[in-house]
């Protein structure tokens, strides 16, 4: 087995991996869930989500340009803050990506359940997949696996071919729905209980849990595949920023179409429930051919996203192995196809565990969203720290006003974690802390001095997680808390506390990062100053 990856991806192919990851099951269900949580103000939720994603993606783009390595998203924290923080951040990031693989399969089966056949309708009941639905989803996960099995070139060609189709279908659906039935008053809330019927808290919670963060999380895919990019310094920013901007336009069109077409019943936006939202709307307006196209795309769009996230999570596993926190076996790369096949098999098994533990799209999307937010936390901290510790290293992408932008990125990530509502925010934070025994086992060969050094750089992070959980518990009822901190003030408190932890986190960085942790894959690349 080899240890080198094939650098075969151009800028457009890299961007299509980001778009394919974003335009998956999120477009099939995101508009409905955002409307049920925020009403017409779901439009603001998508805009806010896109803005936050771009701020955080800017941090990742600077880091990815400096270190174009496989699984980059799980490696930056290890470089700047040592193995303990690196493992915690990598664990959250890996969970947020590998768990998307089964959720895309679940989305396809959920759409299938609205077909007019008894066997199809029996696949999904009361928000969860039946045994037959689980079996169908399991088969789809195998398809995603096979698309990755024969190399990155095969995967990239398939992905590029279907991504164009995946962009055309949702855009066409949105335009045709608006042409068939569009009640402009719905967008202002004139006939539906106001523009913001569930308040500002509904908008913020929609960003965190309704699938918006889940949708934009696809910007990580180009970064995790950077080790296979031909010209990463140019390709990475083009791919990351381009995919977020394009996906934002598509999701805004879809949200406007959904809001304009639907007339809420007596229960309001929160009372609406569709198993296949856009397909059922198309049928209601006699757009039967559009419904058929949507049923086909319900397989294609999630399949592209599922295959992309499996590719991304596999590179994350490879990156964690090269961090020294997973067995060497998972770092083996097939000499002919350039794919880390042991890591691919490992992620297939993890995807099946998530599939059988979380049997509905909405349930798993909320869990993924919170894991995603935790994975974002270290991006601004690492980027800010490296401005001090590696100030002279060339940066193909240099974020302007980094001190302000980085602080805002960390603050937004903390607020997203809070907006996810108690107790979900607390459960996921507890899950992160439960990773500690696994870390100790993986690093059992380290000396006491090495453990002590890792802990010194991680104190701030270990204090940060329970602090945010405590604020979530004590916060306002609008975010699931006990009301000890009044609504409005709770947002200010979380913002201020996050900025204090941001400063602490940057100061806790390793004074002299070990570049050998990142440079092992750069042989054959143009020299960029390392």
UniProtKB/TrEMBL annotation:
Q: What is this protein called?
A: APC family permease
One cellular-component annotation, GO: membrane
Q: Which keywords annotate this record? A: Membrane, Transmembrane, Transmembrane helix
Q: Which organism encodes this protein?
A: Gluconacetobacter dulcium
Q: Where are the transmembrane segments?
A: 12-31, 43-63, 84-103, 133-152, 164-183, 195-216, 236-254, 350-379, 400-418, 424-442, 454-475, 487-506
Membrane association type: Multi-pass membrane protein
What GO molecular function terms would the record report? transmembrane transporter activity
Gene3D superfamilies with a match to the protein in the record: Amino acid/polyamine transporter I (1.20.1740.10)
**Where found in the cell?**
Membrane
**Domain of life, source organism:** Bacteria
